[in-house]
Structures are given as structure tokens and as C-alpha cells.
Amino acid sequence: MSSEFASRIEYLPVTGSTNTDLLALATTNPEIWTDFSVLLTDNQTAGRGRLDRQWEAKPGAGLAVSVFLRPTSFGIENFGWLPLLAGLAMTNAVASLIEDSPVSLKWPNDVLVAGEKISGLLAEVLPDGKGVIIGAGLNLSQTKDELPIATATSLALHGVRNFELDDILVRYLAAFRNLYEDFCESQGDPESSGLRKAVQDASSTIGSAVRVLLPDGSEFSGKAVGLDVSGRLLVALSDPLEIRAVAAGDIQHLRQ
């Protein structure tokens, strides 16, 4: 049962955004909505992705789940690793369900199956800077025609059907909780917790030629070579040879 891995968990039959709802609950009722509280739905009508992109799915076709984190062993300087941690947890959860295709993590926090997007995550820091809400969307039963982009996929398209919602959720929350506890025990150290190595090993971005589209509209290309101590993507430029650290931006994998 997924409830075994959450301090509090609540299912909503329908909502606009689980991230928005959980942010309000965590800020107004912190004594109830404590560290690793979870809010979920399979009918989200106003979901938000990175850069405020809107997305939605028909009722029951997608899982939207938000997790509230308020760590006490490290501060906001280590928060950049939390969406990567959640992305790794979702990667592991999806990989446990799909055996016929490679599952990977695209920096910063998209999950791909055979190069197609099945899940995306969005992290939002609380106004007091002491907590984070991490929302994840997972495509469950959509057909190819029902997906918003041609390069998206769903569990159903990979033969995963006839499941209870909790069968999926428990895999994600169990992986998330184990990774989070290890990270907290190491006081937010990505090295001693093993998080940086695990993320890099699961990443299809590391080692790939990429185009980086920055929030200011500029772009550059290079080869993704690793992650720095803050979780930023390190991209090697070929002319002249230099390493640039990317904190935010859209990453496009280029054909080699």
C-alpha cells in the first residue's frame, strides 16, 4: 500500500493542480501536512509543467501526484537535487513495469521510454524557503492520438494495463522515500548518499550531444558530460573547449 510510505496521503476525485492544492495545504496547515505528505488524482484539469506550460488528460488517463518535502538535515542550497531525486524515483518505478524498452531520465526531470516522454516533474519551493512541492505527471492509458506531442508515450502503449492506481503509486513512493531518506541521512550530500552517481547512471542526457535552450532565449550546443555538486548539467563546448553549467533550460537530445 502506498500509504505505508507517506506521512499523510489524500486522493482527490478531481482538481485543477495537485501542486497548487498541496502548496496551499502545506503553508496553511503545516502541523497536518508534514514532511513527505502526498496529494494525488487521476483527474487533473489544469496541470502545469516547466515554464508554466499547461497540460491535461482525460479522467483516469494520467496520474498526477505531488509530494511535500520539508527536510531538516539540509537547507535550500541542496534543494536542486530534489527534483532529480524524484525523477530517478519515477524512472525506477516505470522501469519496474516496462521490461521491453529502455527507461531513462532526461535532465532535469523527464522520464523517457525508448526516447519518448512518459512522465514529467515540476518542483516549487515554498515561500519560506524551507520546503519543496514536487509534482509528477505519469501517462497511464492514453493512445498515441490522445497524447499531446508525437514524442510522448504511455504505460498502455507498452502493454501495462488492468492495474489499480495504487499498483503504480506504491512503486513511485517507495523508491522516492528510500532515496529521500538516504539523502537526508547524508545531510543532502549527493556524493555520500550515492545520488549523483545514481542519477548520472540513469540519465540518457549524460554522454549525449545536446542543444540547450536557456530561459533568456539564447541557446548553445555541446556534449553533456555530467552533473556538478548542485545538480546542474555540465555541457562541454567544442570550440573553444570549455564547460558550461546549466541550472535551468530546455534540453534537446541531438542525433549523433
- Class derived from helix and strand content: alpha+beta
Shape by Cα distribution: globular
Q: Count the E strands.
A: 14
Mean pLDDT: 92
Instruction: Tell me which CATH architecture of the largest domain applies here.
Output: 2-Layer Sandwich
Say what the CATH topology of the largest domain is: BirA Bifunctional Protein, domain 2
Strand content: 25-35%
Low-confidence stretches: none
Description:
The protein has 2 domains: 2-201, Bira Bifunctional Protein, Domain 2 (BirA Bifunctional Protein, domain 2, 2-Layer Sandwich); 206-253, SH3 type barrels (Roll), CATH 2.30.30.100. Helices cover 21% and strands 30% of the residues. The protein has helices at 18-28, 81-95, 165-185, 195-202, and strands spanning 8-11, 37-41, 47-48, 54-55, 62-69, 103-106, 110-113, 116-125, 132-139, 209-213, 219-227, 233-238, 241-246, 250-253. The chain is of the alpha+beta class. The N and C termini lie far apart (43 Å). It has 4 helices and 14 strands. The mean pLDDT is 92. The strands form 3 sheets. It has a 7-stranded mixed beta sheet with strand order 1-2-5-9-8-7-6, sandwiched between helices. Strands 13-12-11-10-14 form a 5-stranded antiparallel beta sheet, with no helix packed on it. It has a two-stranded antiparallel sheet with strand order 3-4.
